[in-house]
Amino acid sequence: MEAKLLSASSPPSFVVHVATKFSRPSFVLTSLTREFPVFKLQSVHASSNPIVSKTTKVRNSLIRQEDNIIFSLVERAQYCYNENTYDPEAFSMDGFHGSLVGRYTNSDEHPFFPDDLPDHVLPPSEYPQQKKEMMAIGNYISTAVCDTICLQALSKRIHYGKYVAECKYRASPYDYEAAIREQDRDRLMNLLMNLLTYPLVEESIKKRVEIKTMTYGQVVKDDVLKDDERDPVYRIKPSLVANIYGDWIMPLTKEVQVEYLLRRLDLDRLQGN
Ligand SMILES: O=C(O)C(=O)C[C@]1(C(=O)O)C=C[C@@H](O)C=C1
């Protein structure tokens, strides 16, 4: 029963029974949390445990998402920085003040700065001249599209921290509750991250990302049958992608976990538990 409920795929709202030694009541997950996961690897051993298997699914998703992130960065690397793409003065034209790419109208896209979104309109057809000019800009639009794809992949991955945090919370809710009630960010971070093991986990994630980037981002030589002793050429520096993981992606995923848990009891309250 629990396993069945836990494996439900993203219904808008569904009931989950959480069995703990204190026998907590069931609660309803709304689209606020949508799917979710759970865990505490150190204290749960049986993989038949639905919490552990959900955790495994979430972690596997994080690993798969690495591929999207790497591919999107490899694509982006074919263009220059192209600062003009984001300079509102660079393309100023009467009647058009929007961004080059309209996004974040979809519920599964999370803007990083929701209060600061520009209008997302391309010049409407009443402005054929502007539209033509816009098309002539060429690389700037491609750059903006690539950036958008990168940001979507990054945002999805970073916000997956909600599911990671939900897994950790479900595995041992009582470990977290005092820190949540006190809104103690540092304590939550310490509870979420086992300081003994996480540095090693992070190193291994970075190494895996670097190796994947070497594989996906390597330029394949023209004549694959000819012996070629030259060093491989990469479309993006593999260590750069690994560092993006270490300096941005994992720290932000951790922040999302903390922010999610800080509101975790409100969620129960809203749902009457
Ligand atoms: O898997 C976890 O437990 C996480 O907290 C996720 C994650 C990650 O972003 O990949 C976050 C920080 C860690 O140090 C390692 C992993």
Automatic annotation (TrEMBL):
It is an enzyme of class 5 (isomerase). Transmembrane segments: none annotated. Its EC number is 5.4.99.5. It comes from Hibiscus sabdariffa (roselle). Gene3D superfamilies: Chorismate mutase, AroQ class superfamily, eukaryotic. It catalyses: chorismate = prephenate. The keyword Isomerase applies. This is chorismate mutase.
